[in-house]
Design the sequence.
């Protein structure tokens, strides 16, 4: 993606954007609550999206997102292929340009059907939960203790896991996997953490960073032209072990996705639900470095993308949903928040810290 181009288009549409991506909401006139300077956040990677904490401006924000994506798409599809005229003169060609290809292999429902078809028995969440190598609590008994069981089972003594109730924060809680003790973190660097249990629920759920971190602030170097170095607790320099990758699917039908997960010769240490319609699996890689984890990631994207795996979620620094926690509501694509009639559970169904490459179907007899 061309960050500078995207940024320029966004500025034309939205006005000033601060270095962290905050800008004035295009629907500010419709806000019914008090305005803050960090209400409206612009994300330019992937599908460019503007998020506003207010809900009354939803339709306007949705419209702005549609315009933003249309203009960026038009600029990127037309702009990049145009030859650059760096030399004048007869017969001088422009520089060769790489052919445009999709970033990730697309989901291929027939490929998933073919793989899932090799699983001869029905696989459901309950069937897995009944056979989990580490006993998982019944859904009605899952809660804060489940999150703690999950973290202390999957991370080593001394490792720290960052937990989030706000997706874009720098982390709201931190658990020591050895002691099972946790703290609530401050947003400001100068403010000390206080002892606290992990949260039982979040407005949009609860997440954890899939790889362990130091737990302190570290400087994150500028990642793109136009951005600046900043302090963070959740970026690559904070990670202490490159252990896991997240496999999730929003596209694959649950029944087929579960069958595929059961057949894969991968060390799947956990399977849980999102509290929505997707099912997540955590795969142990134990890479020596981020480069090595990225290499494994690339192989998994190529092989599992067609089966419906979300290729963007397969990355080294990634938030996943913390099992045992409740999700109170959700935001739609336009950022409009709706509270669920009753909270949904991010349910743990499979926990196997000692997983090797034996497919689950051979373990869960
Ligand atoms: Zn707004």
Sequence:
């Amino acid at each position: 993606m061309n960050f500078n181009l995207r940024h320029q288009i966004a500025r034309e549409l939205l006005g000033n954007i601060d270095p962290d991506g905050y800008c004035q909401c295009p629907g500010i006139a419709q806000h019914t609550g008090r305005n803050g300077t960090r209400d409206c956040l612009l994300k330019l990677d992937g599908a460019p999206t503007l998020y506003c904490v207010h809900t009354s401006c939803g339709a306007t924000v949705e419209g702005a997102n549609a315009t933003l994506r249309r203009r960026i798409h038009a600029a990127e599809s037309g702009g990049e292929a145009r030859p650059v005229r760096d030399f004048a003169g007869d017969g001088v060609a422009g520089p060769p340009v790489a052919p445009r290809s999709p970033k990730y292999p697309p989901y291929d429902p027939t490929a998933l059907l073919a793989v899932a078809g090799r699983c001869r028995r029905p696989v459901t969440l309950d069937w897995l939960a009944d056979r989990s190598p580490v006993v998982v609590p019944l859904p009605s008994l899952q809660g804060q203790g489940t999150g703690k069981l999950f973290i202390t089972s999957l991370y080593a003594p001394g490792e720290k896991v960052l937990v989030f109730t706000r997706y874009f924060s720098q982390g709201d809680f931190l658990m020591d996997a050895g002691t099972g003790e946790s703290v609530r973190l401050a947003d400001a660097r100068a403010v000390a953490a206080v002892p606290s249990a992990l949260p039982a629920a979040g407005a949009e759920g609860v997440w954890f960073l899939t790889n362990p971190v130091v737990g302190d602030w570290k400087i994150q170097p500028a990642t793109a032209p136009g951005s600046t170095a900043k302090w963070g607790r959740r970026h690559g320099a904070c990670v202490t072990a490159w252990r896991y990758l997240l496999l999730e699917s929003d596209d694959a039908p649950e029944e087929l996705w579960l069958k595929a997960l059961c057949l894969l010769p991968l060390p799947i240490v956990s399977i849980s639900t999102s509290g929505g319609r997707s099912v997540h699996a955590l795969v142990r890689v134990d890479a020596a470095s981020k480069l090595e984890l990225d290499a494994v990631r690339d192989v998994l994207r190529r092989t599992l993308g067609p089966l419906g795996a979300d290729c963007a979620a397969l990355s080294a620094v990634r938030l996943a949903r913390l099992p045992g926690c409740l999700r109170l509501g959700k935001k739609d694509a336009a950022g409009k928040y709706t509270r669920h009639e009753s909270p949904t559970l991010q349910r743990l169904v499979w926990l196997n810290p000692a997983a090797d490459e034996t497919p689950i179907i051979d373990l869960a007899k």
User: Anything to note?
Assistant: The chain has eight helices and 18 strands. The pocket of zinc ion is lined by residues 25, 27, 31, 40, 52, 54, 57, 61 (CB under 6 Å).
